[in-house]
């Protein structure tokens, strides 16, 4: 009623809805310094439809190393979607300016890391509150578990090949 969703093939999706598209209502960068690394979290909230492209860049080019892009999620209380992306940089790059860029059908924006709008979590308790927004922690744990599983699978394969080598030698 007022909404229709149809998927063609492996990725083309047609969505018919009475609701019009809306740009992100809130976007911010959160920062946490830990030992010799700085983690920036770009949080973009309350946009519709869920299709959005999030990238990180420095002054010269797009940054792809040590970037994690979370999946979009829909809050149970809200009509819109949210997304988060993480960038981890060495502490010696603290003075370097990075940008979280997003492209949505209603709006394109670029959020810099080196302005007063970047929020720093001063205490561990504040940091937990920030990262538990939505299901950010769940996404990070899920991605970490996936990488650990792949690593263990590769390790087992290496052991298998080494044993085969010694058996047929």
Automatic annotation (TrEMBL):
<dbReference type="GO" id="GO:0016020">
    <property type="term" value="C:membrane"/>
</dbReference>
<dbReference type="InterPro" id="IPR051117">
    <property type="entry name" value="TRG_var/const_region"/>
</dbReference>
<keyword id="KW-0812">Transmembrane</keyword>
<dbReference type="Pfam" id="PF07654">
    <property type="entry name" value="C1-set"/>
</dbReference>
<keyword id="KW-1133">Transmembrane helix</keyword>
<dbReference type="InterPro" id="IPR003597">
    <property type="entry name" value="Ig_C1-set"/>
</dbReference>
<keyword id="KW-0472">Membrane</keyword>
<keyword id="KW-0675">Receptor</keyword>
<dbReference type="InterPro" id="IPR013783">
    <property type="entry name" value="Ig-like_fold"/>
</dbReference>
<feature type="transmembrane region" description="Helical">
    <location>
        <begin position="146"/>
        <end position="168"/>
    </location>
</feature>
<dbReference type="InterPro" id="IPR036179">
    <property type="entry name" value="Ig-like_dom_sf"/>
</dbReference>
<keyword id="KW-0393">Immunoglobulin domain</keyword>
<feature type="domain" description="Ig-like">
    <location>
        <begin position="24"/>
        <end position="116"/>
    </location>
</feature>
<protein>
    <submittedName>
        <fullName>TRGC1 protein</fullName>
    </submittedName>
</protein>
<dbReference type="InterPro" id="IPR007110">
    <property type="entry name" value="Ig-like_dom"/>
</dbReference>
């Amino acid at each position: 009623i007022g909404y229709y969703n149809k998927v063609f093939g492996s990725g083309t999706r047609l969505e018919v809805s009475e609701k019009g598209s809306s740009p992100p209502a809130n976007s911010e960068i959160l920062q946490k310094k830990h030992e010799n690394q700085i983690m920036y979290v770009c949080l973009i909230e309350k946009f519709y439809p869920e299709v959005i492209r999030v990238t990180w860049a420095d002054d010269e080019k797009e940054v792809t190393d040590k970037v994690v892009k979370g999946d979009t999620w829909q809050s149970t209380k809200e009509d819109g979607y949210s997304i988060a992306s993480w960038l981890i940089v060495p502490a010696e790059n603290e003075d370097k300016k990075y940008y979280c860029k997003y492209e949505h059908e209603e709006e394109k924006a670029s959020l810099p890391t080196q302005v007063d709008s970047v929020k720093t979590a001063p205490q561990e308790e504040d940091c937990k509150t920030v990262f538990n927004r939505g299901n950010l922690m769940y996404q990070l744990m899920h991605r970490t578990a996936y990488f650990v599983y792949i690593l263990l699978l590769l390790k087992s394969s290496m052991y298998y090949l080494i044993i085969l080598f010694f058996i047929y030698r």
